[in-house]
Structures are given as structure tokens and as C-alpha cells.
């Protein structure tokens, strides 16, 4: 064999080997493996055998995972009490990433919200859930490396002049339900759904983010904190102190977000728990005392009569209003589930194929599903 043919054969064998490494370590296909790592593995027959957890961890470290120097910080995207989020770039893929750097207090260690977010996101792989690519743990910080998305739903609505095109409302809502259905099948409650925690890229793909308050709920009767979900998106039973909730807590939030995408403003923008309940009751009617027999209602409210939700969302047809009403039920047990909502007639025009996609497939992989791109100043009120 000539030197040229040997070189071609060698390149093919290396390419095959790299693909095998990517598959065995569950690495992204666009990852640039360091040449030193490839050379070492080619010379190591042990790699071809079954991978132990320790050897897998060592291989990932040698590639560059878990190392601060693997990522370039570009600029700050946001800052909170315990964490700063940077827009960054991965040296391994050249892709943009979001770096959530959590400061560690020596007295307290990692915040429980960070530990919870890591433990849950490590197990979640879905087209409509933000991907956690890497975790970097140093003495002073814990950095979570996420896929980068351009903006959140709140920013998207603001740039669109408020209300969204009804086609895009439907696509965003379906993707939100897909991500939630995946979580709920695994008994994971998000518990903090709001437009700021729903991330969107330029394709129109929506992904659930910020799982800091999420919980894995393995026992249906277990009690949880009622100090969850931003006030405007919190169901009334939780506002009144209920801790015996399940996946239905997220479905009320979905209803509030659905309304907000259609009308361009929050449905119940309360300033306190009492004000929040008053706003809810003024629209959905004051509930009877036996609506929540296990809860005390420490406030006194007028006897509000239920309004027709169709008058609040004139852009929606009767089918869409029916779905909205099914999200906003006082009785948590009667709220529609994420899976049942995906099968609601409101989504019929998306076609049956959207219900058979694998977890890692985007709805935009279907030619029949089209996102409407538009100029931010475009008036959506009649569409």
C-alpha cells in the first residue's frame, strides 16, 4: 500500500474511533477532541472495554470537561444574590454557552437550589428543556454550563410589542407542554414557571429553564413549601398555604402564561398574596368555603361572580378558550394535565406527527410546523 493510501486508511480509522468515543461518552457530535486525548486513547486498549464510572470521569476531564479554562466568558447576562450568568463560548465546540456561576459561601456551601438544579438537569434530556452541558466545581464557585438561547419569553414578548402572533402562541404553548409532560412523567415539578424562565432561540424553539425550585416528587402525599412560583403565576390553593400539591401546580402557571402570550399582559398581576387572590376571584368568581376544606382563608372577599374568560381573550376562539379554562381550575385535581392538554383539539392543526416525536426531536423537524418570523414593531393585534 502506498503512503498516500495508508494515510487515507489511517484517517478513516481515526474518524471511526472518534465517532466511537463520542458515542461511548455521550458527547455532542460537534465536539473538537484534543489530539493529545485521541493519541492517548488510540494507544490504550483498555478504552475499548466496558467503561467504569471512574474511567469515564477521567476521560471527560482529559477532554476538558469540568475545567474553567475550557470556557471563555464574554459578558454578563444577569446577576442575582448568589449567582452571575455570563454569555460564554466553549473551546471544545466553538458554540455559545450560558455560564451560571454560583458563589459558594464557606459557611453554607452550595445553595440548595443549585444542588437541586444540578441533580435534576443531569437526568433530563429533552428538546424542550435547556441542556446542562457541564459542571465546574472549584473552591469558590460552582459553574453550570448551559446551552445558550437568545432570549426568554418575556424579552420576546416585549420585543414583539406585547401580544404574539396566534400561530406562535400555539407553538410556544405546545413546546411548553411537551417539556412539562416529560418532567411530570418523571414526577418532577418545575414550581417556578413564568415567562422569564422559558428560553427561546432564533428557530422559535422554547425550552424550560431555571430548575432551581424544581422538586422530584416520588410520593404523591408528600408536602412541599408553598413559597414557590412567582406570585402572578401561583395557584390560589398554594397562595392559601396548601403544601399537598402535585404536578397540577405547574398547569395553573401554564394557563397564566397562555393568557399573557395572547394579550401581552399578565392575567393576575397581584402586589401581595391578598391582592393576588382578589384579582383571581374577581375574574373566576369567589369560591365557596368548601372548595378547599383543608385550608383556612384568612381574608374576607366580596362575592365576585365568575366572568366569561372569552371576554378576556377576544382573539381566541371557543376551542382555545376551553383549553385556557381547563388550566385555570380552582380544584387542582380537575386541572388538565400536560399530556392531555397536548391532545386538546386546539392543537389539531399541528398534525398528529407532533405527538409521536422522540424526546430529542424538535417540533420544527416537521415541515408542517412553521414559526412566524416578523419585525418587532409589527402590530399583532389582529392576527
Automatic annotation (TrEMBL):
Enzyme class: transferase
Residue positions binding ATP: 100
Record field: catalytic activity: L-seryl-[protein] + ATP = O-phospho-L-seryl-[protein] + ADP + H(+); L-threonyl-[protein] + ATP = O-phospho-L-threonyl-[protein] + ADP + H(+)
The Protein kinase domain, residue ranges: 71-347
Lineage top rank: taxon: Eukaryota
Entry-linked InterPro entries: CDK, Kinase-like_dom_sf, Prot_kinase_dom, Protein_kinase_ATP_BS, Ser/Thr_kinase_AS
Enzyme Commission code(s) on record: 2.7.11.22
Gene Ontology CC terms, in alphabetical order: cytoplasm; nucleus
Keywords: ATP-binding, Kinase, Nucleotide-binding, Serine/threonine-protein kinase, Transferase
PROSITE patterns in the cross-refs: PROTEIN_KINASE_ATP, PROTEIN_KINASE_DOM, PROTEIN_KINASE_ST
One Gene Ontology MF term: ATP binding
Family: Belongs to the protein kinase superfamily. CMGC Ser/Thr protein kinase family. CDC2/CDKX subfamily.
PANTHER family listed in its UniProt record: CELL DIVISION PROTEIN KINASE (PTHR24056), ECDYSONE-INDUCED PROTEIN 63E, ISOFORM N (PTHR24056:SF246)
The protein's name: cyclin-dependent kinase
Amino acid at each position: 500500500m502506498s503512503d498516500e493510501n495508508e494515510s487515507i486508511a489511517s484517517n478513516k480509522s481515526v474518524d471511526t474511533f472518534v465517532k466511537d468515543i463520542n458515542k461511548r461518552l455521550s458527547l455532542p457530535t460537534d465536539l473538537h477532541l484534543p489530539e493529545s486525548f485521541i493519541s492517548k486513547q488510540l494507544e490504550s486498549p483498555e478504552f475499548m472495554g466496558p467503561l467504569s464510572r471512574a474511567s469515564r470521569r477521567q476521560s471527560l476531564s482529559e477532554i476538558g470537561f469540568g475545567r474553567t479554562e475550557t470556557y471563555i466568558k464574554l459578558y454578563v447576562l444577569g446577576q442575582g444574590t448568589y449567582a452571575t450568568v455570563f454569555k460564554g463560548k466553549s473551546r471544545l465546540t466553538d458554540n455559545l454557552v450560558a455560564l451560571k456561576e454560583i458563589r459558594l459561601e464557606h459557611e453554607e456551601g452550595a445553595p440548595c437550589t443549585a444542588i437541586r438544579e444540578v441533580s435534576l438537569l443531569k437526568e433530563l434530556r429533552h428538546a424542550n428543556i435547556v441542556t446542562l452541558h457541564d459542571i465546574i466545581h472549584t473552591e469558590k464557585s460552582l459553574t453550570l454550563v448551559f446551552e445558550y438561547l437568545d432570549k426568554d419569553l418575556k424579552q420576546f414578548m416585549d420585543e414583539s410589542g406585547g401580544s404574539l402572533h396566534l400561530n406562535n402562541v400555539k407553538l410556544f404553548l405546545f413546546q411548553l407542554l411537551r417539556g412539562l409532560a416529560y418532567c411530570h412523567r418523571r414526577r418532577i415539578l418545575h414550581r417556578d414557571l413564568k415567562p422569564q424562565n422559558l428560553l427561546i432561540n432564533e428557530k422559535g424553539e422554547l425550552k424550560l429553564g431555571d430548575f432551581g425550585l424544581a422538586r422530584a416528587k416520588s410520593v404523591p402525599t408528600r408536602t412541599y413549601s408553598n413559597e414557590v412560583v412567582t406570585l402572578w403565576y401561583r395557584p390560589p390553593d398554594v397562595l392559601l398555604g396548601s403544601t399537598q400539591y402535585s404536578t397540577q401546580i405547574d398547569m395553573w402557571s401554564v394557563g397564566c402564561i397562555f393568557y399573557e402570550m395572547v394579550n401581552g399582559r399578565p392575567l393576575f398581576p397581584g402586589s401581595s398574596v391578598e391582592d393576588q387572590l382578589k384579582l383571581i376571584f374577581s375574574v373566576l368568581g369567589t369560591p365557596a368555603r368548601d372548595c378547599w376544606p383543608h385550608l383556612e382563608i384568612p381574608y374576607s372577599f366580596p362575592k365576585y361572580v365568575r366572568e366569561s374568560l372569552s371576554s378576556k381573550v377576544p382573539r381566541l376562539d371557543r376551542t382555545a378558550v376551553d383549553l385556557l379554562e381547563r388550566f385555570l381550575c380552582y380544584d387542582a385535581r380537575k386541572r388538565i394535565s400536560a399530556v392531555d392538554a397536548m391532545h386538546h383539539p386546539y392543537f389539531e392543526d399541528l398534525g398528529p406527527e407532533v405527538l409521536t416525536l422522540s424526546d430529542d426531536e424538535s417540533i420544527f423537524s416537521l415541515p408542517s410546523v412553521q414559526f412566524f418570523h416578523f419585525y418587532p414593531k409589527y402590530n399583532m393585534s389582529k392576527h
